[in-house]
Design a protein that fits this description.
Helices cover 44% and strands 24% of the residues. With 297 residues, the protein is an alpha/beta fold. It has 2 domains: 84 residues, Orthogonal Bundle (Arc Repressor Mutant, subunit A), CATH 1.10.10.10; 193 residues, D-Maltodextrin-Binding Protein, domain 2. The radius of gyration is 32 Å and the shape is rod-shaped.
Length: 297
């Protein structure tokens, strides 16, 4: 049996109006086309749906039984069509993604606020993870993409740089510190500092860059989490060594960043996607928002 929506629309139209002519007019088709659709449906169902005369069209008991089922089917089809249209227009749906803890704290709140304002009906599922877990979690879960800092290439992954952050000395907004345009790594070595632990990706990048110039970083404190470094800096315990992009100004309004030079080191924040996977319309809209916001961050 291959009942079509056109047949069901013709049937419900004739049932409600008791007229093939009026039903055809409502559907925007000819009377003969509407009559043919009814005949085809009767053949498909194996029952007579209307008793026809030159003056009237009367539904049979079978039509009475079929009408409400047909209405439900048409309503479900309309609901499905509207839902798919909303998904296609990014007016509904869900976006699930993974973000490194630093990006989730410092960069993505702006993206989330912008996206929520434009797409209030879309559910957002952001999983903030340690940087080392970014790629494994993207591979192992239903996340559509990931945002964070990674190094090198990964099999079956595309990587797009969204923004870059200069490695900086982050300190309290004192007159002396605010007056500096930049600090060299040699100058930084004379001051109390807070750096990420050696096993973190940021620290490994710093150690490689400094080692290539015969320099060595010996921080006063070592921490695992970016927010820990910033909170300690806010208490005056030392200068945090982090990308400037990792400083959320609204969360730490007393802190400012000054770039580190000789050498200057940059760290990208990237979008990661699995090759061959099409992003949902909701995810596409979120990525577009992230590109726009982070391009000027």
């Amino acid at each position: 049996m291959n009942v079509t929506l056109r047949q069901l629309r013709a049937f419900t139209g004739v049932y409600r109006t008791r007229s093939i002519t009026r039903a055809a007019r409502e559907l925007g088709i000819t009377q003969s086309a509407a009559s043919l659709l009814i005949q085809q449906l009767e053949v498909q169902l194996g029952v007579k749906l209307f008793d026809r005369s030159t003056r009237s069209v009367q539904p049979t008991l079978a039509a009475d039984e079929a009408f409400h089922a047909a209405e439900r089917m048409l309503s479900d089809a309309l609901g499905l069509s509207r839902r798919m249209h909303d998904l296609a227009q990014a007016r509904a749906g869900r976006v699930a993604f993974v973000a490194s803890a630093g990006a989730a704290s410092a960069l993505l709140p702006q993206v989330l606020a912008k996206f929520r304002a434009g797409h209030p009906e879309i559910d957002i599922d952001m999983r903030d993870v340690a940087a080392d877990d970014l790629v494994p979690r993207l591979i192992a879960t239903d996340a559509e993409f990931a945002i964070g800092s990674v190094e090198g290439e990964f099999a079956e992954m595309t990587i797009e740089t969204l923004t870059r952050g200069r490695l900086s000395a982050i300190g309290r907004r004192t007159a002396d510190f605010a007056a500096r345009r930049a600090l060299t790594w040699d100058e930084l070595a004379q001051l109390p500092t807070i750096a990420m632990r050696r096993e973190t990706r940021i620290r490994m990048q710093i150690d490689r860059a400094l080692g290539a110039q015969g320099k060595h970083l010996s921080p006063t404190y070592e921490v695992t989490l970016i927010n820990t470094a910033l909170a300690m800096t806010a208490q005056g315990l030392g200068l945090a060594i982090l990308p400037a992009t990792m400083l959320p100004a609204d969360q730490f309004p007393t802190l400012i960043a000054r770039p580190l030079i000789r050498p200057a080191i940059t760290r990208p924040v990237s979008l990661l996607q699995r090759q061959g996977r099409t992003l949902s319309p909701a995810a596409q809209a979120f990525v577009a928002t992230a590109r726009m916001v982070l391009a000027v961050s």
